[in-house]
Amino acid sequence: MKYNYKDLGLVNTKEMFAKANKEGYSVPAFNFNNLEQLQGIIEACVEMGSPVILQVSTGARKYIGKEMLPFMAKAATEYVKASGSDIPVALHLDHGPSYDVCRDCIEYGFSSVMIDASHHSFDENVEISKSVADFAHTHDVTVEAELGVLAGVEDDVVAEHSIYTQPDEVQEFVERTGVDSLAIAIGTSHGAHKFKPGDNPKIRLDILKEIEERIPGFPIVLHGSSSVPKQFVDMIVQYGGTMKDAIGIPDEQLLLASKSAVAKINVDTDGRLAFTAGIREVLATKPGEFDPRKYAGKAKDYMKEYYKSKIVDVFGSQDAYKRGIEVK
Ligand code: G3H
Ligand code: 13P
Ligand code: ZN
Q1: Which residue of 37, 93, 155 sits with most ligand 1 atoms within 8 Å of its CB, as the best mutation to test the pocket?
Q2: What Pfam families does the annotation carry (predicted)?
Q3: Rg (CA), the chain
Q4: Do 265 and 251 touch, CB atoms closer than 8 A?
Q5: Atom of ligand 1 nearest to the CA of 58
Q6: Is the pLDDT confidence value at 318 over 70?
Q7: Does the predicted model carry a pTM greater than 0.70?
Q8: ∠ CA 317-327-315 to the nearest 5 degrees?
Q9: Average pLDDT, integer, range 168-196
């Protein structure tokens, strides 16, 4: 083990999820790729008193650098302490493609990993997920696995049509693998184009309910849950970008899911949209600006304010812990 997550001030997701399910909210899992996105996420969660899962894809880890990343997570937990907040922070691998990648992340300070073997057969998915859970648990790291396939583009996994999770498979899957949480496919999908214009943008809350009945109290995860806010899509287009027919999941449906056994909801695209809108706005309205703090700072502010509102509108996780103050 090169780094132990506990030395970085991180926690695994076990207690976070138990509290979220007991109190009827979900924990935000926000993806980040750079410092300003991390600042936006951690400041929003500190100010709202919300637990947070800092989520990193394989591609994001490559972009940041595996040596740099643990100390970005440590910087975030130090920020939490300095702000007077006591929100728990996890560092989670999103869509881990293999046992080896999951193991490497665990050895580099992740407190939680996802093994995404959902595109394999049921038995292969069980075997791969179990091998990750067995290793992770020897280091007190929690594991998320996925059953069913989301539409859209996943990191290294492409599924054109979603395959809903079959409720009659979930109990056997969690028992045989020993994983700590389960990502399911109920009609969400990755990216900014989740539905076609004219579609009824609905997720299958009926399947979610059936799944919950099969594994009562077990933490369920929703991927692909960005709402794709119109204000940022409009700004991106207004300031020279292209973004046609971008449609997300309505907030009200996600809030219903948060009140159920859904313990973690993944959001990446919304943050990307807010961030891009901020950068485009500054560069378009101030063409002479070339100080990165001006445009990346604006991008961070938009992302932070949006995530603060999303914590209330979607996760319901505000005030689960003591609120902290912004550290100047
Ligand atoms: O599920 C995918 C996440 O949004 C991460 O995307 O692989 O482009 O970092 P990425
Ligand atoms: P969105 O693309 O809807 O933000 O989903 C992100 C996600 O599921 C990351 O794993
Ligand atoms: Zn995902």
Answers
A1: 155
A2: F_bP_aldolase
A3: 19
A4: no
A5: 7
A6: yes
A7: yes
A8: 10
A9: 96
pLDDT interval class at 163 (50, 70, 90): confident
pLDDT at 155: 44
Q: What is the CA(112)–ligand 3 centre distance, in A?
A: 15
CA–centroid distance, 57 to ligand 1, in Å, is 6
Cβ 243 vs Cβ 236: under 8 Å = yes
Mean pLDDT of the chain, nearest integer: 96
* 172 in a labelled binding site: no
**Every domain of the chain and the residues it spans:** 5-232+247-269
Rounded Cα–Cα distance for residues 56 and 110 (Å): 10
Q: Give residue ranges with CB within 6 A of ligand 1.
A: 31, 57, 59-60, 94-95, 154-155, 190, 268
Amino acid code (one letter) for 110: F
Q: Which residues are catalytic?
A: 94
How far apart CA 175 and CA 93 sit, in angstroms, is 22
Taking the centre of ligand 3 as the mean of its atom positions, its distance from the CA of residue 265, in whole angstroms, is 9
Which class is 5-232+247-269 in CATH? alpha beta
- Hey, what long-range contacts does 284-290 have (CB within 8 A, 24 or more apart)? 284/239, 284/240, 285/239
pLDDT at 60 (0 to 100) = 98
35-48 helix and 69-83 helix, angle to the nearest 10 degrees: 30
Residue carrying structure tokens 């989670």: 92
Q: What angle do CA 94, 95, 99 make, to 5 degrees?
A: 110
CA distance 159 to 146: 14
Region 284-303: what's the mean pLDDT?
98
Name the least confident of 108-112, 201-205, 214-218: 201-205
Sequential DSSP letters for 93-107: EEEE-SHHHHHHHHH
CA distance 55 to 225: 14
Residue 302 · residue 229 · CB < 8 Å: no
The alpha carbon of 242 is separated from its chain's Cα centroid by a whole number of angstroms, namely 25
- Cα distances from 98 to residues 114, 172, 232, 304, in angstroms, run 10, 21, 35, 32
